[in-house]
Amino acid sequence: MTSRVITFSLLLLTLSGCTATSPRHQAVTPTCTVGDAMKQTTLYFGLNRPQGAAITDVEWQAFVDSDVTPRFKDGLTIFAAKGQWLGKDGRLARENSKALMLIHPADKASEQGIEALRAIYKQRFAQDSVMRVDAPACVAF
Predict the structure, then answer these.
(1) Going from the N-terminus, what domains does the chain have, and what CATH number goes with each?
(2) What is the pLDDT of residue 87?
(3) Which is the most buried residue in 3, 79, 86, 122, by most CB within 10 A?
(4) Spatial distance between the Cα atoms of 86 and 93, rounded to a whole number of angstroms
C-alpha cells in the first residue's frame, strides 16, 4: 500500500505542475514551473456525535465563522462529504462530513492554526478525531 500512496502522490505532483524529490519521511518541497510552492491541507470533520443529535448546519457555520475564518482569512474551500470506514466491531460505518481545504504557507502560524481547529472541533463536538491530509502544492492566482 505504501508504494501506491507514493506513486499516487508523485502523480498528483506531476499533474499539478510540480516536481519533487525527497528522501522518505522528509517534507516535500515542490519546484513549481507555474505558481508558488505552498501546502494544501484538507481536514475531514464528521458530523455525527457519539451521543445526541448530529451537528447542524448552524453549528457547523458558527464553527467556520468563529474559529476557521479568523485563522485563515486569505480563503478556504468547504465540501460536503460522505465518509465511511470499517469500525473496530467489523461493521461498516457511514457518516455525513465536511471537508475543509486550506492552501497556506508551510509555516508555524498555519500549523498552529490547523492543529487548533482540530482540537477545538474534537472538544466542542465530542469527536474522536479530525482527519488531516497534507500535500505540497504549486499555486497560481
Answers:
(1) 2-139 (3.30.70.120)
(2) 85
(3) 122
(4) 6
